[in-house]
Amino acid sequence: MFWVQGYKLGDAHDLLLNKRPCFPKIDAIKSATADILTGHRKKLVTLTWKDDNCSTVEVSGLDIGWGQRIPLKLDEEHGLWTLKRELLEGCYEYKYIVDGEWTCNEHELMTSPNKDGHVNNYVQAVSEDVDIINSAVRSRLTGDNPVITKDEQLKIRRFLETYPDLE
């Protein structure tokens, strides 16, 4: 509805929720829109957990979803668990799992409580490759009330037509 029919994203979201219970990921839709229109640029991000008294540290969320986990590697000399990961530009929420316990790192950016009261860490993956036009488009499309132009709708439609399995 947002990409092809020209609905405002918030209106499309509300209409969809009135038709059926579901959980569309608004930030993922915004980021995917920006990726299609500006290209898929990646940024290397580093997550760290400082604790040499635990036996495992994993992370969930990010670009893998909440049902998957990625182990961090321990630098025994420094007592620092680290994950380096390339992410497409965007904002990613995640949580650490330390010895099986889900927790946030208070030394990293944290979200406000969501509607279920959960707080997560988050990271902004932003490329240093400064292209003023694409940066402005990406900023507009990932902001609070993204609107796509008719030309952008056409570009997205052409992009979607390259995937015949979507029909």
From TrEMBL:
Stored SUPFAM superfamilies: E set domains
Biological-process GO terms, alphabetical: starch catabolic process
InterPro entries: AMPK1_CBM, Ig-like_fold, Ig_E-set, Starch-Glucan_Phosphatase
Pfam families the UniProt entry points to: AMPK1_CBM
GO cellular component: chloroplast
Molecular-function GO terms, alphabetical: carbohydrate phosphatase activity; starch binding
AMP-activated protein kinase glycogen-binding domain location: 45-129
Name used for this protein in its record: AMP-activated protein kinase glycogen-binding domain-containing protein
Biological source species: Jatropha curcas
